[in-house]
Amino acid sequence: METGEGAGGSGEPDGPGLRFGCASFNQDSTSLALGTKNGYKLFSLTTVEKLDCIHESETPHIYIVERLFSSSLVVVVSTAMPQRMNIYHFKKGTEICNYSYPNNILAVKLNRQRLVVCLQESIYVHNIKDMKLLKTLLNTPSNPSGLCALSINHSNSYLAYPGSATIGEIIVYDANSLSTVTMIPAHDSPLAALTFNASATKLASASERGTVIRVFSVPEGLRLFEFRRGMKRYVNISSLSFSPDGQFLCASSNTETVHIFKLEQLGPSGEDEAATWTSYVGKMFSAASSYLPAQVSGMMTQDRAFATVHLLSSGQRNVCTLAVIQKLPRLLVATADGQLFIYNVDPLDGGECMLAHKHRLFGVDDDQDEGTETEGSEVTGPAQSCPSYAETAALPASGPVTATLTGYSEDGGAKKGEVIPEHELAAGPVCLDDENEFPPINWCRDGTGGGRS
Fold first, then answer.
1. C-beta separation of 321 from 340 below 8 A
2. Do 215 and 251 form a contact (C-beta atoms < 8 A)?
3. Running DSSP on this structure, what letter comes out for residue 447?
């Protein structure tokens, strides 16, 4: 999951107390990427008590930073060059390539097959293995926030984006076959947040009103669940995220409350789900609903959240995700004042989640720049042997550079929009989620992907 589609992260850092330009969890919520006015940082999320900074750059004013699972591939966009996307191998400290586009980049999404770049009125779909441009979706409805979601399941590489600028229509696009799957009339108001579950079988959405969150089946587009966040006031939903097994959905907003909803549904054939959140939860309701007629059980409405978190303050941007850390379910919330909150979630009884740990995401240098005190920092900085971006990634501005791996077919990519055969994508000798493995890429610098269709 890249998680948190809909979270604030586009445009320049602004606003009182805003300490970062963007924050994003990687696709499986094992790391957190943070873009600040001084650069970007990558944190490992393997333990609750300790937050390790595994990489830190010095490129200023980063407003998009996305890491591909636990690999060394990271995508960065800065306000200094908002039309250019830079892709780095951060462990080697080298730039793999960069691509320029005709307008400002508002969002970048990636999985093991595709890299998607979203502009205000167009979307570019690349093959991530060689960065060849496969498809340009031109004249898409105006999307000033760059709202879109890409499933992390590469065998079902679905892309969701607004189908209208005035109402909440969702276009579901198959980024593998490069074809539109369906249009979902999700809300009366324009969309504010979108996210897929890990298996790409469900899609959650919220509108600008923020009172109702809906979950649809993919690819059919049938409404499965409707969750009412509240009726007293409209809110801005900043992020949505499914739990790893898709049984829970969290939603954060500009209020102080984070909601966790429970998708009561029976697992397939009652199989053992010991590794998922569902192993903690009784299935009596789900079993009963399976006997109801389809028109009755097809969509479940809940008026109350299964679990909640009350943050210390409201009105600031944040991004949330549900993850399993040290074998227990957790809710993680990164807030705009530079803190990461980790909460314990009771998957059986729900209720108010207990704070397990709070981490500051800024080190001494950041705090001095902001004029704040540095006591109590709980973040472990990167090792001294780890060079900064400024020391290692200063490369010439032109001239092709390639990096080819044994076993990687350089001509395996598509050309001019040709669909890549599934067998060339689903398996290969290289694992992109291995931190020690260089991604299977043969890219050249100074790409002009934005200019082709």
1. no
2. no
3. B
- pLDDT tens-place string over residues 109-139: 999 999 999 999 999 999 999 999 999 999 9
C-alpha 450/C-alpha 453 separation (Å) is 8
Over residues 410-449, the pLDDT tens digits come to: 222 223 333 333 333 333 333 333 444 444 444 444 444 4
The more confident residue out of 102 and 294 is: 102
Task: Using alpha carbons, select from 451, 265, 262, 251 the residue that is nearest to residue 333.
Answer: 251
Report the alpha-carbon angle 304-306-307, nearest 5: 115
Assess contact for 121 and 109: CB atoms under 8 A: no
Q: What is the DSSP letter of 330?
A: E
CA–CA gap between residue 7 and residue 237 (Å, rounded)? 8
Alpha helix (H) residue ranges in 182-335: 284-289, 294-297
Contacts of 227 (CB under 8 A, 6+ apart): 212, 213, 214, 215, 249, 251, 259, 261, 301, 302, 305
Residues 6+ apart with CB under 8 A from 201: 156, 217, 218, 246
Q: Work out whether strand 351-352 and strand 307-310 pair parallel, antiparallel, or are unpaired.
A: parallel
